[in-house]
Structure formats: structure tokens, C-alpha cells
Amino acid sequence: MAGKGGRSGLTIGWGVLGLALASLPLFSCQQAELPKPWVLTAPPNPLLPSDPLWSKQPHRDRPRAVCVTPDRTKAYVMLSGVDDAPGTDVAVVDLLHRKVLRRIALPKTPYGCAIDPGGHWLVVTLRYADHASVIDIRQDEEVERIPVPFYTESALFTADGKRLYLANRWKDSVLWWNLQAGSAFAVASTNYQGIAKEDAMGTPVSDNPGPMALSSDGKRLFVGSVAGCTIAVLNAQTGQLVDADANPATTTVGAPKGISHLDFKSPVGGLAIHGKHLFVADMGRGLGAQPTEGIDIDDDGKPGDGTANQAFQDQQNEIGVVDTKLLQEIHRYTSDTIAYQDFRDVDPEWPEKGMALPVADQWSPEVVQALPPKSTWIVAGALPEAMAVQDDELWVAYAGSNEVQGFQIGGDGSLQALQLAPDLYRTGFNPKALAAIGPKLLLTVDRLAEGLSFVDVSKPPAQATSHLTVGDVQAGAFPSTDMEIGEAINEMTAPFTIDGDQTCVQCHRDNGAIARPFVMPLQSSRAWSLRHVMAQRGLYDTRPWFFESAMDETNFFPVLNEFARRENFCCEQLNMMIWAKYPKVNDCLKEPTAPGCNHVLHCNEDPPPECKNTRYAQVPQLKRSEFIKAAAKKLLGRDQSFGDALYKEELSGARKPIPLDFEGITRAIGLFMLGTPRLLPNPNLAMDLPTARRGKALFQMTDTGCNSCHPLPLTTTATLPVPFSPFGMPVRFPPVVTPERRPDGSDAMLVINTFLSTFPDTVQTAAGLHMGATPLRGLWDRPQTRFYHDGRARSLRGALATPGHTALRQGEFGHNERDGVRDTHGGTSHLDKYQLQDLVNYLLTL
Amino acid sequence: MGSRVPSLTVQGMTVSGRPVLGMAVLAMTVLGASVRWVTVLGLTALAASAGCESQVPPPWQQVPAADRAAFEAEAGPLLSKGCGDSKCHGRAERPLRQFAVGRHRMVASEQFSPKPLSKAEWDANFNAILGFVDNPVPRRSTLLRKALGQMAHGGGAVMQAPSDPQFQAVEAWLLGKEW
Questions:
Q1: How many Å apart are CA B130 and CA A589, to the nearest integer?
Q2: Inter-chain residue contact B164 with A198, CB threshold 8 Å
Q3: Are A224 and A271 in contact (CB under 8 A)?
Q4: Which helix (H) or strand (E) is B26 found in, with range?
Q5: CB atoms within 10 A of CB A459
Q6: Residue B41 and residue A18: Cβ atoms within 8 Å?
Q7: Is A186 in contact with B14 (Cβ distance < 8 A)?
Q8: CA distances from A204 to A231, A237, A260, B171 (A)
Q9: How close does chain B come to A129, measured CA to CA in Å?
Q10: Which of A10, A11, A26 should one mutate to test binding to chain B, selecting the residue with the greatest count of B CBs within 10 A?
């Protein structure tokens, strides 16, 4: 077009073109949908309907964590579900009216959470997903998904809301987001952006970090490792471990140099801050009393594991107080029934008793002197985890005994108990989270009860608690199946223990393991009888269990027995301090009227007077099974099974429930372990890296020999129903590494006769105790500082490498030798260090 | 995450890149700006980014002065052994020449000698390797990209992935970290 009209046409043409070009990007780039996370899925449960132990399990939501808005009007409860049916919802609860408002659906299982100080954003970490969700809590809608590595579990905002810290269980590290100021939730940068997912990320801390706390001045971040048993100390501004700090401006004057981890030697269940004091909930690290010989388990330079009775039965429930400026523990408080109330009590008020016990159980006055002062025996519940500070009071939830206890905090961080047993506040089953939601008002998340407890601590305990269901109880209140009975006992074992202090999960946190071995009553010399904690995952197809390959779902006697030994119950007639002076049962059967036989033959009705003088006399039951049944009745409302999986079949074919006595609870826990705690889906496997593929080839080669004794896919030779015996090899093996020996050279590994009689097919020869090939699946999630049955290998490389192998890093020792002969635990001396690392990287995909 | 292209946040919705420029263009059109400028901006908006989501490069890392002693202890033996074959980099004429035990040696009379490398040979290997570390981000350097087969390399991919222990050992050395 030419001339004026032509120019107008050209202008219009340009305009149309311009508009078209301009609008094209506008309409082609709408706001992106929320990204789809990569999700991990566990393989199917091997416990199938064809198994006689299978029964249909109810759907459960299993609330496990809570975040409360700053104005305390709403709570967001993470509904994590169970391993077989992971949850996806967050329940929104109106705290003023105590009702569930709605649920927010997320792409995968909500696990941990944090609300920003401004009260706008709820960040939810998702188990099994590689993103975290951000919810705008003004609309209760998910508005963002931010990439994170798998198994990012807990989150914590700084006081100014500018940074969010995240603890990651896969990378065993601390990550963070720097947040952009503004009305939208925007991550300006992270400390892991641009890093490949297979690489190390963040600030490394110890195994399986969980609880976090910021110091009151905001300068230090404390990160507790549940499995690693330490607390890492980070500079909150730089995100680096404190001893890596070069900047004196951020280092507190007077802080000791070189401290980046506080070694608690005990799983760190919870953290709370008050002023300059950090409160730590753990299970204690022993009483300071030392045996005269044995392996140095806790690296204190002395033999033993630091427990008075030299066995794991004196698990404690403890609270440590750390000065956050000095980074030193200044107070420690322990269980109210220390050293577990047993016939072998270590009791400072009965010092002469120790030497009157049988030789194997004796303890000396030195042991008594090693006990902490009785004024510190104030932690009254079992399994302290969640804690909350309100004004000058510290509140602690006990997940193993369903209680809450308060402590008055002194100016020096010392604690005075506000309640003592038996007057603690009751909660629903298994309180896993605790929040202060008002003056004198606490909220617990009761995981197994599928609900919340509101605890008004201004009232007496009997009137203080009300409950709200937030989960799924359509199939009935928990427990409603025999497997759920087993789960209940596994988590809330305390009522079944003689001192009310112990639980299975104290060592098996989240059904896993911790980096601390314990002495078990297995070997003739107890101090040498050290056993690493095994994980409670993937157990269905790896029976018989334990290193000795001896125990299964019907019998793990050496463990359960320790919680409430028969010797504690007078009429079991095993306490020789009483029964040595009475006739034997056989003699009384021949002559029932002989003096004392009335007590021997009719103890329940006519116990000997000495029974009243025992330290456990307050327990009314005189026999263990009666005690356990009474505990089941009190805790669960029943003293027999439901009969859906645990039953006795009569000749008529009718099935009758079994009593929940010692054998009954053993079978219930065994049933639970078969069916429920599953192997966590492995993100290393999901990445399919070349190093792992090469490592698998090495694993399968005959000159390394791994696959011979740890045959894939189960990685163990212990399988049911038919024992697996490749190439004619025995199911159990003599020691493959140098066994423990006493100073005189004798074999310290020989087991006691009680163990042999309990497990008759256990093999013991002159070569010592024979053990099974330990399952390797789930290795990636276990503590990476303890391997082998006694935890002697402090890294996977140390477990695989021969002494002096080039693959070993500084401080590592290769254990693949027996009495100086190398390659007794597979052939690795011929591998170069890169091949050994390939092998390690493969094992981490199992 | 941070972005270098313009962004605008309204009511929780953040848009960046082309849409922002597009909106600017529309605004100018409405306001009667020169259509030529409108067109120019429109073309610019199209070219501004390759997609709706901007690619954020990772932060630059400064490669610390690569440690000579650490080279001889860890990465050097790996590279010497792995790369110093006489068919590959164990040849005098190669820019990335590597002396190796039992292979190419600095002194002619010592060819294929099993003696340990001399200081001069280690120095030469060190300098040759550093000549191919041409990026502050080690895994973007020619050295490691060729090793992974990400650049034309006669030897192909001699390392399979950054997760390989050998790769990590070399990268750790370049970053001044311990592997």
C-alpha cells in the first residue's frame, strides 16, 4: 500500500504484528502448575493374604507432627499414615473450638512442618517425595512446591522468617532456604541449588538428623541426630559447623574451639530452648560404673557401655541441660527408677546388697558411688521426645508411657519436677508431638490414638485431659487387630517393664537403629556380649533374626526377658536371695508338709514373708505372666488377643484368642514386626548410578564372594520356610573377623547355656559362636558409624576393607581379617580404592 | 529461587521472563507508543528466554589454588595411571601429556621404567592437568567434561558419571577438599 493510506496500513500492520508478538508470550506462559514431585514407592508387603498370620488391617492416618499458628488459633496436623498406606493429608484444627475444620491434600506423605513467624506460610516436608509443600494458611491452600532431596524431614524458621532450615535424613545434613521478602513465598537461594542429587549436600551432621533448635540470640543452630546420637552445632548465619567458623564476630567469646558436635552417645529425641539453656531429651549414656574388662563401646577409654548392670536393661529416660554459650552440659536428670527396679537393683540406699547377689549379678560399692545423686532421679515417664517451653516451665511428652510432665526451670537451667510418678498428666496413646497453645494449656499429637489431647495443666491430672480425633477410627479405636496390639506394645512398652521406664523403640527409633551398641545377656562374659542395634525393617523374609540367626516372631526371649525378668516376681521362685533357704519344689511334692513347703507349693496364695521386703514389692502380681496380663488390661483394655492372627486352634477347629502373657506379647510384637515396619524406599537405588552398577558386579563376583553369603535379593542366608543354603554352605558361620578375646586370650564369644537352651539350633563350637549373614537391605538408612555385630567397624569401608587398605580414610581401620589372615569376610584386598568405593556405593542402594 | 530475568509478583503469582516483557509491550501499545518500538520489544520478549521457567545457573565457585602435594597423593596417581597409556596421553606430543610408572618417562633412557615418578615428572603432570582446568567449576572444566565424554574425546567416556569415585577424587582435589 502506498501514500498516506499506505502508511496507515503499514502502521496498522506493524501494530498488529507487535501486538501479536507481545501477546504470544503472555498467553503461552501461564502461571506454571505446581511441579510434580518425584515420588518413591515401597515394594509390596511380603506378608500376603496367603500367610496364616495375615489379617486385614484398618486404615489409619497416624498423626505425627503439628504446627500451631503464632496466634494459637489453628493447628496443622501431619497425617503420615502407615508404611503400607502412606497418608497425604494435613488436618486443619480449630484450637478454640476444638474441631477439625478441613483437610489439605498434598502430593505425598506429610512428615514435618514449620510455620513462619508472620503466620502466613506452612512448610510441609513430604516423606517419599523430592519436594516440600508450601501452604498459604490464610486460604489453607498449597501454593508452592520447592525441590528438596528425598527424606527431608524437619523444618525450622529463623525468628525473622528470612531463612528456613531443613534436616535431611538421606544426606544426613542440614539444608536451608533463604527467603525473599514480599507477599509471596519465594525462595531466593538455597545451599543445595545446582548440586546434583547424587552428591553430598548441605552442612553434614550425624545420622538421621531430626529435632532442631535455635539459640535465643539466633546465632547457633542445634541439630539433634536421632540415630547418630550427637547434636551438631552450626553457626546460624553461615550455616557452617561451629568449629569451621573463621569469623570471630559470629563466635561467642569463651566458646571452646573445635566443638562442632556434642556427643550424647544416646539418641536425641527432642530439643527445646529457654534463655541460654538447651534441653535435650535422650535415653542417657550409662551410669558411669565400669566393668573391669570388655570392649570400650562408648569410646570413653574404659571397658563396657557405661551401664551399671552391664546390659541394656538399664535404659534411662534423661534430660540434659546444655549451656549454649559454653557448649557444655551443665545438668543431667535421669529416670526416677534408675538402673531399673530389678532384684539386682543398684541402690544407694542398700549398698550392702550388691555383694550378696550371685557372682554374675554382683555389683560393688564402687558402682553405687558412680550413681548420680538421687535428687536428679526426676524424669518420671518413658521415652521423652517432644518438649515445649512455656514461660519458665519445661513440658515433656513421654511417647512410651502416654504422659506429660512439667519441670520448673531455674535461672541456672536446673530443673525441679512439678509432678512425680504416678501423678503425671495422661495423654492419648503415643504422644509424638507437643505444643503449648495457651496459658497452662498443652496440645499433644497422639499418633496411635489417631487424635490430639488437650491437657489443661492448671487442673489436677485426673480432670485435665480431653481428646479430639483427627485420624481414622472407623474400624474401631486403636488397637483393633492383633498386629495393632503388637504395635502398641512395641511403642508403649513401658507398662510391661518392671520399672515402667523402657520401650522397644528407645533403641529402635522410627523402627530403625541407633549408633550405640549395648551389652546383651548372651555370652558367658557379659561385658563382652556387645551387640549393635538392628533395624526393625524388612524382617518378614529375613528370619531367623539377630546376628545369631536364632530368633523369630515367636521367640526373642533374650530381649523381651530383660524388660521384666522372672526373678523380679517372687513366686517365680528364682530369686535365690529368698528361695535358697526354702526346700526345692520336687522335695515339697514328695513331702508337702515339710516346713516352708506351703510357700513353695502355694506361693500365690501364701507367699513367703520375704517377698514383702523386695524392692519390687509394690508390684501386686507375684508371677510375671500375671503382671503382663494386668498391664495389657490396663493399657489396652484387654488381656487377650483379638484372634484374627494370634489364636489357639482347638480340636473342633474353633479359634480362641491367646492370653497376652509373656508369650502372648512376644507373638504380638513379632506379628507387628513381620507385617508393618517396611524397608524405606531407597533414593540411591532410584538414581541407578554407574558406580552402583559396577559395585553390584563386584558384589556378585566370586573373588569378592559377597553374593555367596549375602545372596541377592534378600542379602541373607536366613530365610523361611526352608533355610537357604547356597552351594551347601551352612546357614550360620563361625566368626569371619577376629573374635573378642579376654586379656588371657580365651574366647569371650562363647554364649551362656540359657541362650543355647532357648535356641537349640544355635550353633556353637570350639570356633565360637556361629552367626548368620546379616541382612544388608536398608543399610543406607542405618547409622553409618557402626557395623558388624558388635559395632566395631566405624564405617562401611572399615567393614569391607582389609587392614591398611588404600581405600581407608584417616582414622578408619579395616576389619576384614581374622587373627591376621586377610579377606576372611569376602575378598577385598585385591580391589583398588575406587572399586571398594563402588562396592560401598552399591551397598547403599540395597 | 533467584532469577536474572525481570520478574513481577502479584497476589502470590510470580511471572518472569517473556510474560513480563509481553505485558510491558501491551502497556506501551495501549499507551500509544510507536508501533516500531512495540514490535522491537515484542521480538525482544520472544527472544528473552527459552521457556517459561528461567534456568538458574548454580553459584560460581572459586577453585582454590590446586594443591600440588594433594595432587601427588591422590588425583595424580589416578590420572597418571588412568590417562598415561602410551596410546593415549602417555606420549610426548600430547598437550595433556602424563608421565606414568612403567610407561612414558621424562628421561629417554628411563622409558617404561618401574621407578617411581620423579619430582620433575610430577610437576610436569601437575601443570599439564591444570592446563585443562579452565573453569572455576571443576566439573565444567575441559578436563572433567572430556573424562565424562561430554566433549569430543578420543578416549571416550573414561568416567561414567560424577558419582564415580574416580571423578569425585579428582573433583575433590580441585576443590581443595578431601575425598
A1: 91
A2: no
A3: yes
A4: helix B18-30
A5: 12
A6: yes
A7: yes
A8: 12, 16, 11, 18
A9: 19
A10: A26
Collect all residues of chain A within an 8 Å Cβ-Cβ radius of residue B39: 14, 17-18, 21
Domain boundary among A156, A188, A204: A204
Q: How many CB atoms lie within 10 A of CB B76?
A: 22
In CATH, what number is assigned to the domain containing residue A78?
A: 2.130.10.10
DSSP state of B9: E
Of A22, A28, A193, the CB nearest to B41: A22
The total of structural domains in chain A comes to 2
B71 DSSP assignment: I
Distance from CA of B150 to the nearest CA of A (A): 16
Mean pLDDT of A234-251: 69
Residue A417: all three cell numbers together: 519436677
| Subunit contact A193:B1, Cβ cutoff 8 A | yes
The ipTM (two decimal places) reads 0.72
Report whether pLDDT(A718) > 80.
no
Tell me, what CATH number does A724's domain have?
1.10.760
How far apart (Å, rounded) are the C-alpha atoms in residues A819 and A825?
A: 12
At position A531, the amino acid (one-letter code) is R
Query: Measuring CA to CA, which residue among A128, A127, A234, A232 is closest to residue A191?
Result: A234
Task: Report, as an integer, the average pLDDT of A651-663.
Answer: 94
Residue B73 DSSP label? I
- pLDDT tens digits along A269-305: 999 999 999 999 999 877 666 677 788 776 777 777 6
Q: pTM for this one?
A: 0.86
Domain ranges of chain B: 7-48, 68-174
Radius of gyration over every alpha carbon of chain B, rounded to an integer in angstroms: 25
Confidence bin at B101 (pLDDT 50/70/90):
very high
Calpha distance B155→A749 (Å, rounded): 54
Whether A111 contacts A126, CB under 8 Å? yes
The whole-number pLDDT of residue A623 equals 92
Surface-to-core class of residue A467, CB atoms within 10 Å of its CB (0-12 exposed, 13-18 middle, 19+ buried): middle
Would you place residue B29 in the very low, low, confident or very high pLDDT band (cuts 50, 70, 90)? low
The pLDDT, as a whole number, for residue B94 is: 86
Mean pLDDT across chain A:
88
Q: Which residue has the higher pLDDT, A86 or A343?
A: A86
Q: Is residue A476 part of a domain?
A: no
Q: What is the maximal distance between C-alpha atoms in chain B?
A: 83
Range of the domain at A70: 58-91+104-171+173-204
pLDDT above 80 (res B4): no
In a domain, A329, yes or no: no
Exposure of B33 by Cβ count < 10 A (0-12 exposed, 13-18 middle, 19+ buried)?
A: middle
Beta bridge partners of A741: A747
Interior CA angle at A427 toward A115 and A56, to 5°?
90
Reduced to 3 states (helix: H, G, I; strand: E, B; else coil), residue B90 is coil
The C-alpha of A3 sits at a distance from chain B's nearest C-alpha, in angstroms, of 18
Q: What is the pLDDT of residue B66?
A: 81
Last residue of a domain, one of A184, A204, A224: A204
**For A94-138, how does the pLDDT look when each residue is reduced to its tens digit (9 = 90+)?**
999 999 999 999 999 999 999 999 999 999 999 999 999 999 999
- Spatial separation of the C-alpha atoms in residues B16 and A31, rounded to whole Å: 10
